[in-house]
Each structure stands twice: as structure tokens, then as C-alpha cells.
Amino acid sequence: MTKIAVLQMTSGIDPEVNFERIRAAANDAAEGGAEVLFTPEMSVLLDRNRKRAAPWIESVSADDMIARLQALAAENQIDIALGSMPITYDAAHWANRSFYFSGSGDGDGKGPISYDKIHMFDVALSSGESWRESAAYHPGDRIVVARDTPLGDMGLTICYDLRFPALFDALGQERCDVIAVPAAFTVPTGKAHWHVMLRARAIEASAYIVAAAQVGTHEDGRSTYGHSLVIDPWGEVLLDMGGEEAGLGFCDVDLSRIAEVRAQLPSLYNRRKITN
After folding, report:
1. Per-run averaged pLDDT (10 residues), the chain, 276 residues
2. In 3-state terms, what secondary structure has residue 29?
3. Most buried by CB count within 10 Å: which residue of 3, 43, 120, 169?
4. Distances (CA, A) of 166 to 18, 103, 130, 201
């Protein structure tokens, strides 16, 4: 068994406050015997007011935060799968970027593994909520797998990526053992789709899903669904942190379960290429 910790957050508009919450969680997770800590999407800064958020994102503080998070992982000797944080991409755009920090340092000297969210959240919901992520963020264009983690090979995704099975199919073909799905899901879409889609993705990839989520009412006025989940390759929910409050959860992951499920239902090997 490999123990993991999942941080459910109500992140706000002050990166320092959010970092302190992550720091405390890393300490508690390490003391609790976890080998990997998972955090949600935009765990360092969650602010829909882009004018207010821009000075921090576009300053040296954002780059410095990456170094601080790497140091935090090393100090606690725990890997940190940071759900995401906003990073400058170019003169006109930011990136919604996740990071995987090794507790043993930066390994090959190239720093943490990173993934840029591919699918932009451009929606208009019947509830009145409207989001256009592509107005500020540049989409990623490649899948990323963190190899040889304490949980084996880990595929990285972010939130809205969940709705695009082709991405998870690609990670399944990479034989990922675990797929991280950090999120800041809206309440209406969470109630309708969160559990069912995450269970489906776990089943399709025959892999564990770890989905650390934002929860509650945030300083920028939005509300998020919560229900951070850990799901096994058979689609069984091992951890559900509910939709009420932030907190730290623990879960034991049995990596032998992956081979067991894939032996029973070898769908990754049975897959056929379909042409029009």
C-alpha cells in the first residue's frame, strides 16, 4: 500500500495565505505517512479578477513560488502534485500550469515536471455563470506523464480536461497507473457530472484517479463543488471529502490492484483503431 494525502482547499486571492495552507498540509501529510500530497487547480491563487491577479502572476513572485514549493517538498520528503497555478506564458497570455515536485529534489536538475491545461473552460451555464478561460490563458498542446513516482507513472490533467476522453485514452495508452485531475468545478456542473465522469475515466484508463478539488465560497465570489475523490481502477470510490469544507484527507492506494483489473478487463490491449 502507498498512502497519499489529498488537500481540499478554499483558495483565495492572497498567494501567501494559500501557500501557508499548502505548507501546513505538507507537514501534516508527511507526519501522517503520506508519500504524495495532491492539491487542487489554482491552489496558489484563485482570482477571477484578472486585473487584480496580474501583478502577482507577472512578477518574480510566481517564479519564486515554484522554488518555494520545491523546497517544501524536499524539507518534508514528500512529493507534491500541485494541481495548478497561473504562470506567465508570453506577453499576451498566462498558462494554467500544474507541477509535480519530487520530495527528493529536482532529480535530473531540470526542476519539477509541469503540464499546461489543454482544454480551456469557455462556457455559459444556464445558472448564469459564464467563463472564458481562453481570453487570458494559452492552452497546452501535449500530454505529460510523471514517471517513476511513488505511485508509478502519473498522468497530469486539470479540471475541464476531464470532459475530453481522448486525453485520458492517450494517458491510458501510456499505461499510467494514476491520473491526477485537480479541479475547481462549478457547483451546477459538479452536481451533474463530477462523480460519474471521474469514475468513467478511472474505468476507461484502468487506473487510479486522484481528484483534489476546490470547495465552498471563495474571496473572488465564485463557489466550487468540492468532493475531492480517490477512485480505483474498477471505478470504486475510495475517498470522498464532501462538498462542505476544506481539509486534508488520507487514502491507501494498492498499486497491485491495477494489474489485477487490467488482467480481468484488458481494454487497453483490446483497443482497435477506428477510421471513418
Report:
1. 97 97 98 98 94 92 94 97 94 92 71 91 62 78 96 97 94 95 95 97 96 96 96 97 97 96 77 76
2. helix
3. 43
4. 33, 31, 25, 10
- Report CA Rg, the chain: 18
pLDDT tens column, 195-204? 999 999 999 9
**Domains (range + CATH), the chain:** 2-265 (3.60.110.10)
By C-alpha distance, which of 225, 232, 242 is closest to 201? 232
Please say whether the beta carbons of 250 and 78 come within 8 A.
Answer: no
Q: What is the pTM of this model?
A: 0.93
Going by the DSSP 8-state scheme, the letter that residue 140 receives in this structure is: P
Instruction: Kindly write down the DSSP assignment for every residue of 1-65, as one continuous string.
Output: -EEEEEEEB---S-HHHHHHHHHHHHHHHHHTT-SEEE--TT-S---S-HHHHHHHHTSHHHHHH
What is the C-alpha end-to-end distance of the chain, expressed in Å? 44
Active site residues: 41, 117, 159
Amino acid at 48: R
